[in-house]
Amino acid sequence: MSDERATPPNDDSWTMSNDTHDSDRAEPTHLRSDGGQSTDSVFGSRDLRSVLNYLALAGLVLFALVSAVQLYAAVGGIINELIAREYRVFFRAAFNLVVLLLCVGGISLQLDRIT
């Protein structure tokens, strides 16, 4: 007697045999911290935490981009009003560097949490 489930034919007409029931399939289990097993969810708490960290990273990057555009415009106007023409380039460079370092720090913190 051959097992039809082991090697399906190459065409699309292969179906599961009648002797296979859903009760034969094991539900996914996850080990709990107390050593027991849980069949509550396909996703474990580690997977959920990872997804939330990726969402937090994406939110931080998007927020940094929007804030940077608005802040650059505002600070550019302030620099034009308050700083003498010959020093404007230096103030803009210093401001851009500070914003860039803050964004890199936040992104690297999130990447450390993810990995």
Automatic annotation (TrEMBL):
Pfam families: DUF8060. Residues 1-42 are annotated as: Disordered. The lineage of its organism: Archaea, Methanobacteriati, Methanobacteriota, Stenosarchaea group, Halobacteria. It comes from Halohasta litorea. Residues 19-33 have a biased composition (Basic and acidic residues). Residues 5-114 form the DUF8060 domain. The chain crosses the membrane at residues 54-77, 89-111. This is DUF8060 domain-containing protein. Keywords: Membrane, Transmembrane, Transmembrane helix.
